[in-house]
Amino acid sequence: MRNILDFPDQFPGTTTITLEQNYRSTTPVLDLANAVIAEAGEGLAKQLWTDEPGGLRPTLATCPDQQAQATAVAQVVLDHYESGVPLRDQAVLFRTGHHSDLLEVELRRRRIPFVKYGGLRFLEAAHVRDLLAMLRVVQNPWDELGWMRILQLARGAGPASVDRILTTLGVRDPDRGGPDPLAVFCAEPGRSGGAAGATPDLLRLAEALGACRTGDLPAGAQVETVAAALEPMVRHRYDHPMPAWPTSTRWRTWPPMRPRLGSSWPISPSTRRARRATWPARRPSTTTG
Fold this sequence. Notes:
Elements: H1 2-5, H2 7-10, H3 27-38, H4 66-82, H5 101-109, H6 126-139, H7 144-151, H8 159-169, H9 181-187, H10 199-213, H11 219-239, H12 269-278
Helix pairs in contact: 4-5, 6-7, 6-11, 9-10, 10-11
């Protein structure tokens, strides 16, 4: 903020043009905004106004925690719906996408349909789907898709290793006549056919799954146990992804260098034609002996 406030001092003769007319909000909303702005210790003075009159006054609600806030918002949505306001005419605004996580869960619990604009829904995020896959395996040890998802998180486990593990556990047995795959995995995770490098993560998964399969832990404790086991694997997989470009020193320089037309860098035919038309041709190097 200092770069804006100090701009006139750093550049004498600056003319400040204040944009005060608002084209989206109503007068009661702007009255509240002006009252909040007036309490700021420093800043550029402005008085927002609009040609849109009327509208309801904003309501300030205080909630003890985020879960209570999600419950309150969901209830307000239902109250408006029951009073005749269609769901498509209601909106909840957030500063950042992840602030909607608890509300999304609450809306789904109440079976209130909604559309999220900007980012994935909470339950569509990869790490959440990983956690749900673990819980699915606890409930159904023959859930092949659930097993595939969580086993691939183990560092060092590739498609071939996962295939061997599923075969060893008997997950793909159509008759399900063998022993419980989850019991087999929890008993000897290191001997289930996985790669040697994946053993530490497989042990971590087995410990968490074993704690949940007994049925002694309540649902909340199961989620916490599974989340703790998945955290290092999820962080490694999603916070340190494999680069989508060559990793030679040439591609780690800054500013980035444009690839030559004759290089192996994958570009579309249309892009290649455009670059041929715009880039100056490189003369072939000559060697004198």
